[in-house]
Amino acid sequence: MTNPELRSPALKQLRWATATAAFQIEGSRTADGRGRSIWDDVVETPGAIKDATTADPAADSYRRADDDVALLQGLDVDSYRFGISWVRVQPDGTGPANRAGLDYYDRLVDALLAAGVRPFPTLYHWDLPVALEERGGWLDRDTATRFADYAGLVGDRLGDRVTDWYTINEPAMTTLQGYGIGTLAPLKQLLFGALPTVHHQLLAHALAARALRARGAQGVGIVNNHTQVRPLRDAAEDHQAAAVYDLLHNRIFADPLLGDGYPDLEALGLPPMPVRDGDLELIGSPQDFYGVNFYNPTTVTAAPDGSPLPFDIVPTPGAPTTGFGPDWPIVPEALTGLLVDLKRRYAERMPPVHITENGASFPEPDAADRVQDDERISYLAGHIGAVAAAIEGGVDVREYTVWSLMDNFEWLEGYTQRFGLVHVDFATGERTPKASYDWYRDLIAASRA
User: Fold this and answer.
1) For substrate, which residues are the binding ones (predicted)?
2) pLDDT tens for each residue of 294-308
């Protein structure tokens, strides 16, 4: 640990974790009564996936969960954030639970506890049942009710051992990319017509939190993707564009949870949210903790005349990038700025923060004995240092989570982007820890010394 920030006493208060998502690692998409999700539809759409692959076998974790637990034990992490597949538990999104699906997660929870790792499930990481999407998906309020029912089924089975839960992962990406511009499932291009999905996801979170607490949960939180928004130029039109993007990516999701309801959408010519009596009180009830996924800042400029959106997202000047290129600039101090701004904006309403995803993809070979991923180590060190700076600035951060434990199926990118601390040979399933795995293990040990 050569970075001075990584010797900060602030890091001693952190719990350390790593994360995965069910669809990205499990494989076995037709095994044991699993239903069909919107991402199954996408991977079978010709031309949708960059390398024409599917999520089978991915990392084959449905059959190799013991291998993954051993890797977690080797890291000596405090927690493992893993995804529970809605369609494994409830194949069509309604009705009784699929016993075989719940059995898998039951065994995983027991294995984690035996290894000394706290199980920290995420109930929804984008794998909406197709049957619900056909009824309107997140555009339909009833999906929130169905999600709460699903949460209850999982809580009934695992709640005697799982104390803390994440409900929904990155509702912003589901809204903006899934329903807004069509770069994630379900590949819809509704632009501002996607906005009802914001409210229905936040309502789903609140209803699921209530269901889980009724089953003994000690802590429940949502996981929001946040970005620090920067105007390209110090010009009024770029500042206005940045304010609009900040509202759509950050505030429209955080304000109802941590503030006083939705920001003023009608002032921007946008339709109001489909709010019913009691919704905002339920959504705005105190949060046990608040999950923040952070990868990069976003630089925007005013859009040209005739554009359907009032902003353009552009490369961040002078910033190095990850394997995704200009869309993913590396600016660690943006994480400090974001966290400090969240604390300033929401003040006493701001609960303890968990950094629930942070990581980077860089080009790596498909087969490897050892990956010396110094760029990833540098990225992680910079961002952990940024978390330390935020803590020193008064932000109550309790947990830091690396994305991802292992290489996985990276959505539309297929297997072309690798985020893992552990290399996966997708032809054989072989797992090989990278240099970053050893580095993270050593950092965790040093923080406890």
Assistant:
1) 24, 125, 169, 295, 403, 410-411
2) 999 999 999 999 999
Q: Which fold has domain 4-448?
A: TIM Barrel (3.20.20)
Q: Which three-class secondary structure state does DSSP give residue 231?
A: strand
pLDDT (0 to 100) of residue 1: 45
Is 170 known to be catalytic? yes
Options 5, 26, 133, 357, the catalytic residue: 357
The secondary structure element, H or E, covering residue 67 is helix 65-75
Total-model pTM: 0.97
| 411 assigned to a ligand binding site | yes
90 known member of a binding site: no
Known binding residue 354? Answer is no
- 330-370 pLDDT, tens digit per residue, is 999 999 999 999 999 999 999 999 999 999 999 999 998 89
**CA dist 251 to 78, 170, 346, Å?**
30, 13, 11
The per-residue b/e assignment along 142-158, b for 16 or more CB within 10 angstroms, e otherwise, is ebbebbbbbbbbbbebb
Task: Name the residue ranges covered by the structural domains of the chain.
Answer: 4-448
What's the mean pLDDT in 60-80?
A: 98
**Surface-to-core class of residue 24, CB atoms within 10 Å of its CB (0-12 exposed, 13-18 middle, 19+ buried):** buried
